[in-house]
Amino acid sequence: LYPLSFGNARVMKRDEVIGGYLIPKGFTVLLYNMSMTKDENLFPRAKEFIPERWSRDRPLGDIHPFAHLPFGFGPRMCIGRRIAEQEVYTFLTRAMQRFNVGYKYKDMDIFSRMVMVPSEPLRFDFTERKQN
C-alpha cells in the first residue's frame, strides 16, 4: 500500500517526449510513487491490502513493469537490490516456516523521514508452529 520512498527524481540528459509532453534537457522529473500506488488504472483495488497481487500468476492482472520501482531502474538502480531482496526472501521463508504471524492492533499511518516509516512501532504476534 505504501512505497518505501515518496518518489524518484532524475535530471533529463537530453530532450525527451513523455506522454506527449516535451521534457527539455536539464529539467528535473519526479516520479511520484505515492500517487502511482493508489492509481486504479495501474493497480486494481489499489487501496486494499492484497499481497497476492505480486504473485507470479497475477490474480488481479498484469502490473506495468514501471509502475513500481522501489530500487529505481537503469544505471542509477540501487546496487544492493539483489542482496536486499535475497535477505527478505530468506527471512520471510524461515519465519513463515517456524511461526504463525498475526497483527491485532489498530491501523497505522506513515510519515516521511527521507524514506517512509510507520507512525508507531510495529507489533506483530509470533506463535511458534508445531513441528511434525
From TrEMBL:
Protein name, per record: Cytochrome P450
Annotated residues for binding of heme: C78
Cofactor: heme
PROSITE patterns, alphabetized: CYTOCHROME_P450 (PS00086)
InterPro entries, per the entry: CYP11_CYP27_families (IPR050479), Cyt_P450 (IPR001128), Cyt_P450_CS (IPR017972), Cyt_P450_E_grp-I (IPR002401), Cyt_P450_sf (IPR036396)
GO molecular-function terms, A-Z: heme binding; iron ion binding; monooxygenase activity; oxidoreductase activity, acting on paired donors, with incorporation or reduction of molecular oxygen
SUPFAM superfamilies, A to Z: Cytochrome P450
Keywords: Heme, Iron, Metal-binding, Monooxygenase, Oxidoreductase
UniProt feature coiled coil, ranges: none
Lineage, uppermost ranks: Eukaryota, Metazoa, Ecdysozoa, Arthropoda, Crustacea
PANTHER family: CYTOCHROME P450
Gene3D superfamilies with a match to the protein in the record: Cytochrome P450
Record-stated family: Belongs to the cytochrome P450 family.
Any Pfam family the entry gives: p450
